[in-house]
Amino acid sequence: MRVLLFLLAISFASTYGQNTLQLPKGQESTEAKITLVSWMEGHWKGMAFGGTTEEIWSPASGGSMMFVFRQMLDDKVNFYEVGHIRELNNSLIFELKHFDTNLHGWEEKDEVQQFRFIKADSNRVYFDGFTFENVSPEEMNIYGLIGNDDGTKSEIVFNYKK
């Protein structure tokens, strides 16, 4: 029994948070262009938070790619997100806002969730708390650190297919 618990603990420790990075305080983002994420263009569908999710990403243009997101529970919209990845100061930033079903913002009027670019390697693009993974032309994963009510963070994966 102890061996089983030990193996479960190692398994959990090795998978928790291994797909996301956090930018150390005071560290600058590395240089990047919007073409780095142009593979994300399209209409993506998946499952998360107990329901269906979809994201629609525009083509890269004008130094940005915009997106809309919605999450559905029991065939009803639960919430929306609107945002973009844009070029800023010779790097990239991922920004978004949340909205309820009546399009009332979760964040304050002038508040935007911001996730600075960290790095890219092989098939992944890392932002502070989010990772976009190009699995294939028809599949991507988005890993995100999501805040819990108790102040901790959990990594969640959004697996999308076109």
Automatic annotation (TrEMBL):
Residues 38-143 form the DUF6265 domain. It comes from the Bacteria. Pfam families: DUF6265 (PF19780). This is DUF6265 family protein. The lineage of its organism: Bacteria, Pseudomonadati, Bacteroidota, Flavobacteriia, Flavobacteriales.
